[in-house]
Design a protein that fits this description.
The structure is a homodimer. By secondary structure, the first copy, chain A, is α/β, with parallel strands linked by helices. Chain A has two domains: 83 residues, Rossmann fold; 88 residues, P-loop containing nucleotide triphosphate hydrolases (Rossmann fold), CATH 3.40.50.300. Helix content of chain A is 45%, strand content 20%. The radius of gyration of chain A is 19 Å and the shape is globular. Chain A starts with 8 loop residues before the first strand and ends with a helix. Chains A and B meet through strand 8, helix 5, helix 6, strand 9 and helix 7 of A and strand 8, helix 5, helix 6, strand 9 and helix 7 of B.
């Protein structure tokens, strides 16, 4: 049975806002419950309902800076005056925990860029909207933001898409079920990658020599 | 809609005999009817029921040698006095045919090795038995071959497995449904690979500039 243990997989999921990543991420968690969600560190104050250690690891700016100084983050960034980062310890804890088959990172292309540089075998997926018209429609559908905010979000989405080169896979979210099948396919394929499964073949060869 | 056209995929499926490739291949064809099966050239005489152009392209030895001389094959081999080869024209015909989304090659590691050298973006999958004991059981289950023939097949299987390094993916066929899900995953993931989907992102960026 040990032959069939799933190899540990680090998976980056990224997308411009409006591409429908949240729904896809939730479906992925349901499908692969053994794959853990990464919890980021942040200096932002907790919102009501947010739980320390579950939604974020809430830390002070001093604590955050100290972690940066120790190179404790595989990626971090400052956004609107708040810092966010993914700690290496978070990954190592999951990796050493029995029954945990991987970790998903919900980050932007800048985080993806940093993690890929530090952990070369991480797998990265970028969710694309089916069209810019549909992206605009989805951004508008969110509520009553001003035209200025909408235009800024649209520009931010274009900026994200311009960095698609930092991702291994591009999944178009036209129909959510089809997009999910492709996302599921990425997980199953990457688990089957030779570099992650070579030990299986070696075990067969050792058994063949007996 | 043209956004969602599946990119053309070349997929090598290989396995030691007894690993259950035939069933998996059939299921893959049912799941992806737009992916064409490669028809090899051979100098072997047709068996009753074999149809020229469907099971094989039956050719004379002179014709085969002439094709080899013109570098018309992406892989070829001589096995027990008969020649087998996969012609480049076969692939190009499929690639240019509307509605055809790829081609599957049912070949051994030596064919895989040759095709990968000539067509670097081909995707290769090696089906593994769950254990050597199970492999032997499956080989024995096939009928009443002599012990000598069984041992030769078992050794041939080990020889195949020793060359797992020529494949991108290793799929263990313990439970056929699980193995098939992984095989399906490889096709869906490889269709989503950035290098095959970059044109989608470029189209979005062009539309975003309008």
């Amino acid at each position: 049975m040990s032959l069939m243990v799933d190899p540990f997989l680090l998976l980056i999921l990224s997308s411009p806002s409006g591409a429908g990543k949240t729904t896809l991420t939730r479906k992925l968690q349901d499908r692969f419950p053994a794959v853990r969600f990464s919890v980021s560190h942040t200096t932002r104050k907790p919102r009501p309902n947010e739980v320390d250690g579950k939604d974020y690891h809430f830390v002070t700016r001093d604590q955050f800076d100290e972690l940066v100084g120790r190179d404790a983050f595989v990626e971090w960034a400052e956004v609107h005056g708040n810092c966010y980062g993914t700690s290496r310890a978070e990954i190592e804890r999951a990796r050493s925990e029995p029954g945990v088959a991987g970790m998903i990172f919900d980050i932007d292309y800048q985080g993806a860029r940093q993690i890929r540089a530090k952990i070369p075998d991480v797998v990265s997926v970028f969710i694309l909207p089916p069209s810019m018209i549909e992206l605009e429609r989805r951004l508008r559908g969110r509520g009553s933001e001003s035209e200025e905010i909408l235009q800024r979000r649209f520009q931010a989405a274009i900026d994200e898409i311009e960095h698609y080169g930092f991702f291994d896979y591009l999944v178009v979210n036209d129909d959510v079920e089809t997009a999910f099948k492709h996302l599921e396919g990425v997980v199953l394929a990457e688990r089957s990658r030779r570099t992650r499964r070579a030990e299986l073949a070696e075990r067969l060869l050792r058994a063949g020599k007996l």
